[in-house]
């Protein structure tokens, strides 16, 4: 079963993060609307087929210039929110 999730990032140029995850917590698709197109297409290609926890570990805390966050960091935050919602839905 594949689940879709959408997240509105904060503090970055991108406007929306949309991804799908399968029953094994593998990212099947990731699209970022707005931001630096080439970089985000590259990140999207790299995270497809990866486990959520692995991607969070690699992207969490990356900064963009003087900002306290970045598009990769916001992707990690979106994935964490997805995981939190899945835990809440199980209870």
Which characteristics define this entry?
single chain, 91 residues, alpha+beta, Sufe protein. Chain: A, three-stranded antiparallel β-sheet, 3 helices, 3 strands, 43% helix
Please characterize this protein's 3D structure.
The protein is of the alpha+beta class and 91 residues long. The chain has one domain (3-90): Sufe protein. Chain: A (Alpha-Beta Complex). Helices cover 43% and strands 20% of the residues. It has three helices and three strands. The model has no long low-confidence stretch (mean pLDDT 95).
> From the 3D coordinates, which CATH architecture would you assign?
Alpha-Beta Complex
What is the tally of helical segments? Answer: 3
- So what's the overall shape? globular
The helix/strand class is alpha+beta
Integer count of domains: 1
CATH topology: Sufe protein. Chain: A
- Give the biggest beta sheet: 3 strands, antiparallel
The top-level CATH class is Alpha Beta
The low-confidence parts are none
Secondary-structure element series: EEEHHH
What fraction, in percent, of the residue positions are helical? 40-55%
Major sheet: arrangement of strands: 1-2-3
Which percent range describes the beta-strand content?
15-25%
User: How many beta-strand elements?
Assistant: 3
Termini separation comes to 19 Å
Radius of gyration: 12 Å
How would the blueprint of this fold be written?
Blueprint (H helix, E strand, L loop, with lengths): L2 E5 L8 E6 L5 E7 L3 H11 L4 H8 L11 H20 L1
Antiparallel strand pairs: 1-2, 2-3
């Amino acid at each position: 079963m594949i689940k879709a999730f959408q997240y509105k990032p904060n503090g970055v140029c991108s406007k929306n993060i949309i991804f799908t995850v399968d029953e094994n917590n593998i990212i099947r698709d990731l699209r970022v609307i707005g931001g630096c197109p080439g970089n985000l297409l590259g990140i999207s290609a790299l995270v497809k087929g990866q486990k959520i926890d692995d991607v969070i570990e690699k992207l969490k805390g990356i900064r963009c210039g003087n900002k306290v966050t970045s598009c990769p960091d916001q992707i990690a935050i979106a994935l964490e929110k997805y995981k939190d919602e899945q835990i809440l839905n199980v209870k």
